[in-house]
Design goal:
single chain, 692 residues, alpha+beta, 31-stranded mixed β-sheet, 43% strand, elongated
Amino acid sequence: MKRLIKILAVIGVLVIALIVAGVAILKSMDFNEYRAVIAEQVKDATGRDLLIEGNLDLQISLSPSVAVDGVTFANAEWGSSPEMISLESLSAEMELLPLLSGDVQVTRVVLQGVDVLLETNAAGEPNWEFSPGDGMSEKEAPEPDGETTLPVVHSVQVRDVNLTYRDGVTGDVQKVSLNVLELKSDGASSPMNLLLETIYNQEAIEITGTLGSIDALSGNKIFPLKLDIAALGADIEIDGTVSEPRNAKGLNLGFSVKTENIAAVVGRAILMAGVDGGAPLPAKPFSASGALRDGANAWAVDGLSLTIGGSDLAGNIAVGLGSTRPDISADLSSTLFDLADILVEEQGGGDVAVSETSTTTDDGRVFPNDPLVLDGLKSVDAKVAFKGATVNAQDITLTDVSAKLVLENGRLAVSPFGLTFGGGRIGGDVTLDGSGSAAKLSMAVDGKQIDYGQILKDMVGEESVTGKLDMTAQLRGSGASVRALMAGLDGKLRVQSENGFIDSGALAFATGPLTALFEGEDAKKLRCVVVDFGITKGQAASKAIVIETGGLSIVGEGGIDLAEEKLALRFDPRAKNTSFASAAEIGIVVGGTLKKPSVGPDVGDVAAEAAGLAAGIATGGLSTVIGMAVDTATSGIDQTDYCALALAGKPLKPDETSPPASGGADSGTPAEPAVPGVESGIGGVIEGLFGN
C-alpha cells in the first residue's frame, strides 16, 4: 500500500512538473510571432487582409486569457474606406480544466473600441460577403464533419462601438453608437441574457431581455426572444420566436407599444431619421399590440389592438410584396373613432394657413382648377373592410358605419358603404378611377329619414326646425381637376322632406309684426321641401323646387351652370290664404356665382311704373321697392297642392280652380295688408333669408 502511494506521489510530482514546465514554456513564447500566421489564415478564408499592429498576449492561470490590440480588417476593393473593421482591444478568458479535455469554455469576451463600416456599392453588392483567398479556394476548403461545434461563450461585453451603414444605391448614410452590449449565458443550450445601450442620432435606446441559445442559433432552429425596449419616450415589448434565426425568417413576434404622447414619439423619430418636419399627430396617449408574422414575400399583423386618445381600432392587416405593387388587405373595426384623435388642429381658429410659396390665387371660383394628383392610387393595391360603431368628424357623429374598399390598378371603389346620420341611414357606392390621365368619378348615394332638426340641434343648438328628409344622388363625370370634373358632370340630385315644423324663432327677420306670419300651428307646419335637379354636362336644371308651409307655397325654377359656376334661379311665393297675399306678390331671383351669389326681387313682378321703380331703387333701396310693390299689387290665392305634385314627380302646374284673394283687381277694391307694417317689412324678409 505504501509502495502504491509512493508511485502515485511520484506520478503527481511529474504531472505538476510537466504543467509547470509547460506554463514556463508558454510564458516564454512570443505569440507575436504568430500574427503573420493568423493573418494568412484570415486571408485564405475571406480574401481580405487582417493586420495586428498591437501585441498578442497570453496569461496562464486557472482562467487563462488571451488579449490582442490594434487589429484592422480590410474592406472590399470597391469600398469607400480601406478598413471594414478596426478593433482597439480584444480579450478572452477561458476555463482551464475543460480546455485540457478539448472543451472550449470561454468565460468572458471583452471588445473595446470597435469601428464597423457596412456598405453596398452602386450595384447593391454588400461588403460583408467574402470570397476565399489564393491560398484556399472554395473547392479546397475542408468540409466540416457533422455539425459545427461552436465554443461556449458565457459572457460577451462590448464597449464603445461605432457602426456606419452606407447605401451605395441611394447614397443614404446611417450611424449608430453602441455604448454597451452584454450577452451572458450558462451554456450552449441555455438562453442568453441581453443588455444593450446605444445612441442613434442623439436618441438613447436601451434593450434588455433574453434570447435563444447558441445551439439554436448555430443550428438555425426555433429561436425564442423576449425584449423590453425603451426608446423615443415609448415602452416596447417583444415576445415570440424566429424559426430560422440565421435567415431572419419565420417570425412570430407578439408586440406591444405604449406612450403618453404619440406626437412626441413620432416627432423624435422623424428627427432621429434625419428628416425635417413636425409630428403629424396630436399629443395623445397611444398603445398598440398584436402579433407580427412573415411569410413568402408577405408580412402580417394579427390581433391588432390600437388606441389613440379615446379612439380604438382592432383587426388584422396583411401586406404582400410578391407583385409589382404592394398588396394590402385589412379587416378593421372600431367602437369609437374620433378624427380629433388623429388630426392636428390648425392654428388661428382652424383656418388652413396658405404657404407663402403657394401659387394658388383667388380667381372667383369655388371649384379648384389644380390638377388632381392620383399617382398614390397606382402605388398600391388594397382590400379593406371597416366597421365602426361610432365615428366622430368634428361636429358630425356617424354611427353603425360600414365600408368595403377595393383599390386595384389605380381604381378605387368604396362599395358598398353605409352609415347612420341624424337617425337616418345613408348608403351607396362611390368609385374614383385614377388609372388614366383624367379622373373618373361615379357615385350612387341614398339617404332615408335623416333628421335634419336633430342635426341642427347637435351642431349649432338650433331647435326651431324639425323634420326628416330623404335624398338620392346619382352622379358621374371625368376630368383632370375638380373644376373640369364638375363641368362635365351628369346625373341627378333629389332631396325631399315631409311633415316638418318651423318656428318663427328660426327666422332672424321675423320680428315685431312679422311674427304674425308664422303664428298658429298650421302656419308653422313645413308640409314639404322638395329639391330635384337633373344634371347634363355640367348644367343642373331644376325639375322641381317646392317649399310649402301651412300658409305659403314657394315654387322655384331655373338652374346652375356648374362649368361657369353661375346661378339662375327664381322663387315664386304663392299665398294659400289672404293672410299671406301681400307677402306672395314679389318673386325672388338668385343670380351671380356660387362664390358670390346675388339675391333680389324679380322686378318683372312689381306692379309699378318703370320710372317709379327706378326712383324707388335709387332713393329707398330694396325695402322701398318691396313696399311699392305691395302697395300696388293685386294677388290671387293659390291653393294648389304643390307638395303632392312634387313628391309624385309631376309638373308643378297651378290649380286653375283656386279662388282669388279678397280685394285686389277682381273686387275693385285694393287689397289691404293682412298684417300691419308688412308693406315695409317684406324687404327685410328677403334680406333676412338671402342677404343683400
